[in-house]
Amino acid sequence: MDLCLKVDWSKRTVCLTERPVVRFLLMLGNFKVEGEHMNVTLNDTQKVKASITLVDVKGNPAQVDGVPVWESSNEELLSVTPEADGMSATISAVGALGTGQVKVGADADLGAGTTQLVGVLDVDVIASEATAISFAVSTPEPA
């Protein structure tokens, strides 16, 4: 089930999909959105701060082994700067337009083993407002 919310004043659309993965918390000013699988739209000059919440199958707070690791699927599209504890990061549009993903991985097994837990945030980068007009002209020819 998808739930999408268009916020006209910020020119953003936020979508949530129910899936049992790492929960995201996205702050847009004083507006807060939480979900397991999310989509956010940024223009090519914007950034957002995203944080994760780790829960067990019953929705209770849970721990992971080590610091969660954040990564961008396309560094020409998105840069990701995580905080030292790995529980949040700043996601910035780099300049290219397109769709990418921010992935967070963590080890859910608190013992010697490894159980990989992955959360994915889909990010669409769109063009910002027009700021200039450029011309293209053909080769001159007789009138």
Explain this structure to me?
It is a single chain. Helices cover 0% and strands 54% of the residues. With 143 residues, the protein is an all-beta fold. The protein has a single domain, classed as Immunoglobulin-like. The strands form 2 sheets. The protein has a 6-stranded mixed beta sheet, with no helix packed on it. Strands 4-3-6-9-8 form a 5-stranded antiparallel beta sheet, with no helix packed on it. The model is unreliable at 16-22 (pLDDT under 50).
List the topology elements.
Layout lengths: L1 E6 L4 E6 L5 E6 L2 E5 L1 E7 L3 E7 L11 E8 L5 E5 L5 E6 L4 E10 L8 E11 L17
Key descriptive features of the protein:
mainly beta; Immunoglobulin-like; six-stranded mixed sheet; five-stranded antiparallel sheet
Task: Describe this structure in a few short sentences.
With about 140 residues, this protein is mainly beta. It is built from no helices and 11 strands.
What is the CATH-assigned architecture? Sandwich
**Please, how many domains?**
1
Going by helix content, strand content and strand pairing, the class is mainly beta
Helix content: under 10%
Q: Helix and strand string, N-terminal first?
A: EEEEEEEEEEE
User: Low-confidence parts lasting 5 or more residues at pLDDT below 50?
Assistant: 16-22
Q: What percent strand?
A: over 45%
Q: Identify the strand order in the major beta sheet.
A: 1-2-5-11-10-7
